[in-house]
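Page 37, top half.
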Amino acid sequence: MENSNSHWARRFYTLWSGQALSLLGSQLVQFAIIWYLTEKTQSATTLAIASMMGLLPQVLLSPFIGTWVDRGNRRLIMIVSDSIVALATAALAILFMAGIVQVWHIYIVLLIRAVAGGFHQSAFGASVVLLVPKDELARVQGFNQALNGGMNIISAPLGAYLLAILPMQGILAVDFATALIAVTIVFLTQIPQPEKSASAASASFWQDFKAGYRYIIAWRGLVILLLLAMVINFFFSATEPLTPLLITKHFNGNASQLALWLSLFSVGMLLGGLILGVWGGFKKKMITVLAGLILMGICTSGIGVIPSNLFTVGLIVNVAFGVLLPIVNGSLGAILQSSVTPEMQGRVFAFMQSIAMLVSPLALIIAGPFADRFGIQPWFILTGVICLLLGIVGFFFPEVMSMEAKAQENEISAVIQPS
């Protein structure tokens, strides 16, 4: 197997560095576009539509994208998807240079970037297990989480600085350049393909699509884990939109205190990712996940019960939560990468992402009236209690606790059936 090569680290981190640079460019563009739309339209509806352009492809198209990724050449998919992002960005830059850009132009470009980004993310994620030894996956996930935390810290202030010294087309040019660098690195990097059985190689698109669904349903531990994730995501997906109200209404804070809260949370994420990258978690990674969920629940409920005059204590608990989040997510990602057979990873991860995200709109619909009726803090307390209880409950499911031991139990040949 390619990932046993002693030079895996040099090859993987070269590829990873290109992706990190491209991610920075994308976040700079995201910040700049949102700020442009805010200044130009002063419309919440416009910002909501812009957000939906990025969200809808993830919810609606992820399972189909995952199937295409598993059927195709993952390296080629990454090259093509990054190239499409670069071309869409260049087209938008030309519109800005010509002074003829319209809001609907931005919507279209955001949608194209989201779809292409979905292909890229799925292809890269499914390739990691073929590039990295399984005992190093948790550390790699930790560094990925640290990367996200670090980007959250620097992208907004860097974006604001670039907006002050560059026109919009200049920032778009930065993203275009980083995308080209990423494409070049992928082009020069050998990325192995998963081996396919004869039945898998001859299967149609829809047979492969159904196989991904059957693979998940047939694996009881995976189904239980997905249900736990859906419940937790339901509650946590509303805590972020409610955070500004927590700061202003409960802690009697202002924009500066909100910025400090969000920045320190990102610092916590960076620290947590680095901790996981160095430590790697407990030998049995599911223990890391469930113990982390319990501690996250305690932190979230703690935020809800902290008195309004103890904002500094709230900041400390918020940082602790930020540290725990990448440790939990990174460990869970490592479990899935090492447990799901390589030729199914694109589909399985895409199905899970799509299903988990379906609950977010419902959570927002419920959380708003709930918070208006009972207050902001009760939602945080309820979210924390649910997270804590589900972390404890997970220890009592043998199918969940034994997922790593049964990594290869579900073979693709057992789930591909004629339609």
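Page 37, bottom half:
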Amino acid sequence: MKVIICGAGQVGWQIARQLSGEDNDVTVVDNNPNLVARATDTLDVQGITGFASYPDVLEMAGARDADMVIAATFSDEVNMVVCQVAHSAFSVPRKIARLRAQSYLTAIYSDLYRRDHMPIDVVISPEREVAAAALNRLQSPASFDKESFLDGDAQMVGIDIPEDCPVLNTPLRQLSELFSTLRAIVVGIRRDGNLFAPQPDDQVYAGDQAYIFTHTEDEARLLEIFGKHPKKQERVVILGGGNVGLAVAKKLEKHAWRIRAKVIEKNRVCAERAADALERTVVLHGDGLDQELLNEANVARADAILAVTDDDKTNILAAVRAKSAGCAMAICLINDPSLVPLLSTLDIDAYINPRATTVSSILKHIRQGRVRGIYAVGDSEAEVIEAEVLSTSPIAGEHIRDIDWPEGAIVGAVKSDGKVIRPSGSTRIHEGDILAIFTLSADVSEVQRLLQVSVDFF
């Protein structure tokens, strides 16, 4: 597949890394020569320096025979023009644009992106994706990561293994025997900074981070087995009243159980906008690092602080200060992945990586076969691929144990005839089944080959 990626920032670079590693023909376009040089020096991609919205620049990038254009520059308007030029001048079949401004995303203007208006096939909103991820973290205080799959019937939860975990030093094979009715399977373990797909004889140790697939109905039991006892969130302090913080506060106001939220925003205009948009949420204007303001927000009695400003260091310092004051849980928005290893030593419970959430959103519109969703794990160290099995797939009709899975791939859950089951070696994969597969990044292309439809299907 020939792909042009416009914008070589964090998201563009990550998408280029993923696609070029899967033998796609990738060209990166950016008007910053340093970003282009970084991409071409570190990745197997071609680079063009220039303004991505210019037709001659897109032509140099190979737009005439491109399969897809991904517009991920810092400007919404440039991303829109890129898609328009790619469609009108070069008839590029598929166009994806990242748009930040909420005005462009209002439902009443959805007709704007029709092919006979402004032809954008997929619109990605980072703020909405990040707000959804933040809300997910708040609702799962016992886990540092969580994502839903199989129409919400299955969850992948990431949990830190504590010293008092009841199942320490127990082979995973034995766990399945001890809890035979528990619909759960450990698909990934991060130990000493390295993520791997475990074998049946592997064990979990204190200090590990485990990624576990479970049926939604069994999640509470799973957490209890691994020594986690989550507390219901009732008081939340949100640091940052921009698009992300405001979206989370609005969702919390509509929550089934009453959650008392307070928003702290440094910018007066943003604070006033948030106060006007929210009904029951208290909005405080001031610096979230100010101890007096944190005391006014009663952070010491809060069940969680969610720090989602656009400054990583502010998020981290505010979270540390809140935890030291007695806040039960701290969640940070972190743009710089190099800061992530510091979080555990600073007693920060969970983080949100906006790049990973945006990359996940874009990847699910790129993968081949009948892919329903993609979720990037960690700093894109692994992916969870949710896909439907078609009749022409090499795995249709096979038992899981007879399929030549790559070493870094594990089937986490199977939905067959509307029911979610815990997969085992004897599970037969049928046409129409939906699989959720955890796979290390190096093995994505091989898993994709197993899922890919053949030409005669069409």
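Margin note: The longest helix spans residues 312-325.
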